[in-house]
Amino acid sequence: MKQILTLLLAIIPLLSWAKHDTEINGIAYNLNEKTREAEVTHGYYDYVGDVVIPSSIKCEGITYTVTSIADKAFIYSESLSSVTIPKSVTHIGEYAFEDCTMLTSITIPNSVTSIGIGSFHGCRNLISVRISNSLTSISDGLFAGCSKLSSITIPNSVTSIGFGSFSGCESLISIFIPKSVVSINIAIFAGCSSLSSIIVDPRNPIYDSREGCNAIIETSTGKLIAGCNYTKLPNSITSIGDMAFSFCKELSSLDIPDGVTSIGAEAFQGCKNLTHITIPNSVSTIGPQAFQGCNSLLSIDIPSKVTTIRYYTFDRCTSLTSVIIPNTVIKIEEHAFDSCCSMESVTIGNKVQTIELCAFIDCTRLKAVYITDLSAWCSINYCRDLIKNRIVTGDETGNPLYYAHHLYLNGEEIKALVIPDDVSSIGDFTFYGGSGFTSLVIPKNVTNIGQRAFYGCSGLTAIEMPDSGISIGPYAFHGAAIKKINNKFLKQGLICVASLALLLLIGRLLFLKTRPKKNLSKSRRQ
To answer: Average pLDDT over the chain, rounded to whole?
Structure first.
């Protein structure tokens, strides 16, 4: 019974998808008796071979004009080789031909005025398309993933080009943007690895491709909307838009001109062969994921006007060996340097106040963290996981010291760690993993030590600190091999100490060698 129920639950969605009014010569239709119009839809089976859609059909003595192709009408018809669309059709629905992987060519008649999003998405063998001269919009993802489409002509009727409309068209060589286009969304050429020519009609009132730059630039603002592997950046641009060069896999080097003030989100995402990029000091904002997956990028100079390193900005930049966070940066967001597995050193500017979760996760080759202000380092906030309301540990903390183990102040490694007198609180995770420390001095001004502040400081053997008045977080000294407190030796080092307060108590009452052994024996005899 349970197996039958499971089968029915699997079939019901398919029956709903395949619901239609009639089927004639292998083509399924929905009928509108009031308007006498028919819509081609998906039948019980995928379409195969060559399909010729008639301009009209007759059902029960009534003639219906075929005016549209429904959403997902031919979706996943992997054996469909060609479709003939009649001039009576005015609309093609969303994802109508998605993943029709054997479809090689299609002609969209001039009667078609609208095509839904992703209609030809994933038609990877589609070589040629003739677009209707009546079409006003190239919708989001319309030809995304058509990896063999080498050329396409955008008619003068088109006024807008949607998000990712040609993304993943790996064989597309050139594109001409007519004067009629007044709206262009982002990522239209993402992953177009063969694109070498982008030309905008000089008469276009909104966009231009000035100086033969092989890019689309918003004329009024100077913002570069879309580029390619062969783009040459004009000195007159002011910003680089979101996903402008996303997945330009053959882009190897780029010098951004002085005067550019911002780099958009995912602007260079997936540019896997990008080894060198020059970012001028005029840039004040770099969007999230801007260089994500640039795994050949050897170095990066973060401009001095940048105040925030956004999430995943340098995620999987696996060839980066070092990075300097300038003194203007206040915040490093989550996963900013995730999986930069070749990074050996990082310099943290003295204005950094927050480092979010996993900012340096999987930077496993880190050997050194460089700072110039120890007081500033003590005040950095390493965010907890507020979403899951849990305390994070280990590499999740965002503290690069977890991997590096060694902290350098003004170029010299800190072994004898002396907390500055102006520090009143040592935050959570501040020295987490700092196994290079051998001794610690905490001044009387310190009233709080956060959780896991010195967790994993396995080389730490001696501490000097006030006897009282300090609030200690959980596991503050977990893993420290402490042998001496305030110049008093312990019989054995204490490992996995959860609380300094407990450590002090134990030190005073149990393990301190307060009197010579011979005096203890004499006392017992008496």
So the answer is: 89
